[in-house]
Amino acid sequence: MDMKDPELIYQPDKFRFALVSHAAEVVDIVRRYCRSDTEELYTTIVGLDDAVDTARALIQDGYDVILGHGGTGGMIARSIGQPVVNIPITMLDIANALLVAAKEGRNIAVTSFATGREGFDTIKTILKLNVRQIVFDSQRELEDGVKKAIRNGVDTIVGGGVSRKIAARLRARTVIIKPGRQTIQEALEQARALAAARRKEEGHP
Fold first, then answer.
1. Contact 61, 12 (CB under 8 A)
2. Are 70 and 77 in contact (CB under 8 A)?
3. For the packed helices 161-169 and 24-33, what is the interaxial angle rounded to 10 degrees?
4. DSSP state, 42?
């Protein structure tokens, strides 16, 4: 992958963030809340298997902070640690996606990276939906989980861009979980603080 973005002109006084994402929808939302006066944002869309190597290459290329979201971001954060800020998926994000999914079908599965989500049963009860979780720790586990869920009658997958590609091959519907405004703004503030601290440690302005 070419790490150079010809549309970005490096300005030393601005922070350099790179968003390694799973879906264009997430890229569009994060861009909406970036501040052009303090940071420039490079974006790339990858699969789970490519996420960690892509993030490492971007760090080597001089980016201050790597941003991620969902399972892609979780995998990067777990493998690399700093300088990574993962935009978390909240139960409100999931509830909003489930409300959209409920208009498409009644048998729904939600993907969840590494562990099941606390509060999931409560959401199921409140929304009165037939929903199950697909817990995964790798792209292979995600593929197997999505395939199994669809074989067992699931017609709509709620998750990320990688899930969408898998589901599309099996002719199932997908709803992307999108981060909310407050979550993104908090992640960007964290990224700015982390970038400033790293530059201070390295003796840069």
1. no
2. no
3. 160
4. E
Alpha-carbon distance 46 to 59, whole Å? 16
> For 138-194, what is each residue's pLDDT tens digit?
999 999 999 999 999 999 999 999 999 999 999 999 999 999 999 999 999 999 999
Q: For residue 81, give the DSSP letter.
A: -
**pTM score over 0.90:** no
What is the side-by-side order of every strand in the sheet holding 173-176? 130-136, 107-113, 156-159, 173-176
How confident is the model over 113-146, as pLDDT tens digits? 988 888 888 888 888 888 999 999 999 999 999 9
Which residue's entry shows tokens 């503030």? Answer: 189
Which residues, in sequence order, are bridge partners of residue 85?
Answer: 67
85 Cβ contact list (under 8 Å, min separation 6): 65, 66, 67, 68, 187, 190, 191, 194
The total number of residues written for the chain in this structure: 205
